[in-house]
Design goal:
The protein has eight helices and eleven strands. By secondary structure, the protein is α/β, with parallel strands linked by helices. The strands form two sheets. It has a six-stranded mixed sheet, sandwiched between helices. A five-stranded parallel sheet has the order 2-1-9-10-11. The longest helix has 12 residues. 40% of the residues are buried.
Length: 222
């Protein structure tokens, strides 16, 4: 069986690993990045009529200040982000699977206009439509100093890539003339493109979801 290399930062890496182990996959963890909280000043909740998170890291790293916004309708990109919010005590979280712009359109359809978006220092662009979105960075993603990727790799390995930034970093670490022996599963088409060319194979699920990535991995790792 081909090994599955998990490149995402913790705690997401451990969650993906647990899912992969339940599927009987042989896994290796090699985070290329690590998430770190940053100091942030929380605006008054009464300035907003909805809360948006586009990453589960935001829910995990926001700290106790996040509790101030439990009275707001909460929206999330992805089921993992929704679960992370629910673990922080938010009820009735609405999850979207098509990215930030799609969930923004849903928020607008629900009649909200002023949105607080808690996320990282770098986020994918969101088309706000009629919304006024105030974005506050509550965490940053830093490069792991010693990813030890070469130690994890072996010919035929399958690499899980969870973000365009991770794809770019992977392309830096593995030169084009070495890529033919490795397979990629990326969370989205944009992430797959960021990895560059020359890989043995590369594919992305129809929706940006960890479970769908692992479903592809089961077939590829056998």
């Amino acid at each position: 069986m081909r090994p599955l290399i998990i490149l995402r930062p913790e705690p997401g890496a451990s969650q993906t690993a647990a899912r992969a182990e339940r599927l009987g996959l042989r896994i290796r963890r090699c985070p290329l990045f690590e998430a770190r909280p940053v100091i942030w000043k929380e605006p008054a909740p009464d300035r907003f009529d909805a809360l948006l998170l586009t990453s589960a890291q935001a829910a995990r790293l926001a700290g106790p200040k996040l509790e101030r916004y439990r009275s707001l309708p909460a929206y999330a990109v992805g089921r993992a982000t929704a679960r992370a919010l629910e673990e922080r005590g938010f009820a009735g979280v609405i999850a979207g699977e098509q990215g930030g712009s799609a969930i923004a359109a849903r928020i607008a359809r629900d009649g909200h206009r002023h949105v607080l978006h808690l996320g990282g220092t770098t986020v994918a662009r969101i088309d706000p439509g009629p919304l006024t979105i105030e974005r506050i960075a509550i965490y940053t993603i830093g490069v792991t100093k010693e990813p030890r990727l070469d130690e994890a790799l072996e010919p035929g390995a399958v690499l899980l890539v969870h973000s365009p930034r991770a794809g770019q970093r992977l392309a830096e670490l593995i030169a084009p003339d070495r890529r033919a022996g490795f397979h990629l599963i990326a969370i989205s088409a944009a992430t797959l493109a960021a990895c560059g060319t020359g890989w043995a194979s590369g594919e992305a699920p129809d929706l940006p979801d960890d479970e769908r990535m692992l479903a592809l991995a089961v077939r590829l790792c056998e």
